[in-house]
Write a structure and sequence with these properties.
Elements: H1 19-28, H2 34-54, H3 64-70, E1 80-81, H4 92-107, H5 110-114, H6 119-131, E2 138-141, H7 144-154, E3 162-166, H8 171-184, E4 187-191, H9 200-210, E5 215-221, H10 233-242, E6 246-250, H11 262-265, E7 269-272, H12 274-277, E8 285-289, H13 323-339, H14 341-359, E9 365-367, E10 379-384, H15 389-400, E11 402-403, E12 405-407, E13 416-420, H16 427-442
Helix pairs in contact: 2-4, 2-13, 4-13, 6-13, 7-8, 9-10, 14-16, 15-16
């Protein structure tokens, strides 16, 4: 790392003290004091506040505002990460806090059970505000899959009851229902929502047409991992509730990508992974249970005191967890709150729109993701006729150190390259990807 690349995060360290040196030293517990880490975090947040004041009207996908925010991440030199739809990076404050709290167990294990757990209720309230819910509806889990399994295992369903799923479900969402079908004899019905995705009403109508008197719940992806569709769960929930049917949304990518409001969406259950778009560490997840639906869902994992809670906390009595993850989640929420959820969603969608616009200009490109801003977010899936998707992934990684991934299935017509457009990239990085696709479109052999 050269002198021109150094920023205030490293100013307290000796000349030549690289990011890699910092990480090694911090893990070893010798780099900085706890007070110094708190000070570094405070400086980051003050920087964001100053940026907001300076660029109060600037929501463009490029420019000084976003370039400054990009510096609050610790990427390897030259790495362009456009697959945070699998695992995203942590901003500096999140990493600082994670290391700080993990050090507590190293230095004073007594405090792990003495004072660390008290933070969870504070973070639960903060998460509730962030997603437009009440604290009594928020559960901190390990990941999206755990929350989805809680619903599949915890509902009172009997033989012959029906669950509707879409034809674009992640295995973590479909397999819990398959297991429940084997155990209880329920029926899982697949609803084809079509590709390309056309309109909100057509999608809602597809689910409505599949409903029978035995249908108990609609379980659908919200942020569809294969095509990038944002499923219109608000409209699906309205239709379903009029018929007395519950709705579960798999929104693994939604938290940190979209400006969410649970009470506005109207879903009964919602599961997400903060370590994709929100910037939290792996190992912590969100599970939302609407207050009115809690009486219909049994806990799946219980420990002492589970039956003393009148709200969603009864789904969280699973024993000792990693409290450092909760503290780090707090900083992930703080980081995005300081920037602004609406501003983040607008940037992500603007970048995705630019990518789709330019991809459609390349002969042979097929884009699976809708253009309608209501039906799309930060995931874009596309393919290039005559070129295997894996070849494109390898080409842009080798030429530009740019990370994207393949997704989908050839037989289903969904095999594609999936691109994430998070807040720390710009049109410059998107142009690199486009250049690679154009090159391969001209050299297909």
């Amino acid at each position: 790392m050269g002198d021109h690349d150094k920023n205030r995060f490293f100013e307290q360290f000796p000349e030549g003290f690289s990011r890699r040196d910092f990480v090694k030293a911090l893990v070893a517990g010798s780099a900085v004091s706890l007070a110094a880490l708190d000070r570094l975090n405070a400086e980051v947040y003050q920087s964001i506040t100053s940026l907001n004041q300076k660029y109060i009207q600037d929501e463009s996908p490029d420019g000084a505002y976003w370039e400054a925010l990009k510096k609050e991440f610790l990427f390897e030199d030259g790495l362009i990460m456009m697959n945070n739809g699998t695992v995203g990076p942590m901003p500096k404050p999140v990493f600082n806090t994670l290391m700080k709290i993990f050090r507590v167990q190293v230095t004073n294990p007594y405090d792990v059970y003495n004072y660390l757990p008290a933070k969870k209720e504070e973070v639960r309230k903060k998460m509730a505000v962030f997603i437009g819910a009440s604290p009594e509806e928020v559960v901190l889990t390990s990941n999206t899959t755990e929350g989805l399994n809680f619903v599949a295992a915890g509902l009172d369903l009997k033989e012959g009851d029906e669950v509707l799923v879409s034809n674009f479900e992640h295995p973590g969402a479909s397999n819990p229902w398959s297991l429940r079908a084997k155990r209880s004899g329920i029926k899982v019905k697949e609803v084809n929502v079509g590709l390309p995705h056309k309109s909100t009403q057509e999608i809602v109508d597809a689910f409505a047409a599949a409903i029978t008197p035995r249908t108990k719940i609609i379980s659908t992806g919200h942020t569809v991992f294969i095509t990038g569709l944002i499923m219109p769960v608000r409209e699906i929930s309205k239709m379903a509730h009029e018929k007395g049917i519950l709705v579960l949304a798999d929104s693994a990518h939604g938290l940190g990508m979209l400006d969410l409001n649970m009470h506005d969406l109207g879903v009964d259950f919602f599961a997400s992974s903060p370590y994709k778009w929100l910037g939290a560490p792996c190992g912590i997840g969100l599970f939302y249970v609407r207050k009115e639906a809690q009486s219909r869902l049994w806990p799946t994992i219980v420990s002492s005191g589970w039956d003393t809670y009148p709200d969603a906390r009864k789904y969280e009595t699973h024993g000792q967890g990693a409290d450092a993850l909760v503290y780090a989640l707090d900083d992930a929420l703080e980081f995005q709150t300081r920037i602004g959820k609406g501003r983040i969603e607008k940037r992500i969608k603007t970048l995705a729109a630019y990518l789709k616009q330019e991809l459609r200009k390349i002969p042979g490109v097929k884009v699976n993701t809708p253009d309608d801003p209501y039906l799309c977010g930060g995931l874009t899936a596309f393919s290039l006729e005559g070129v295997d998707c894996a070849r494109i992934v390898d080409y842009v990684r080798n030429k530009y150190n740019l990370v994207v991934r393949t997704i989908g299935n050839k037989d289903a017509g969904t095999y594609a390259i999936r691109v994430s457009t998070p807040i720390y990239i710009s049109t410059k990085e998107i142009d690199m990807l486009l250049e690679g696709v154009r090159t391969l479109s001209l050299h297909k052999s």
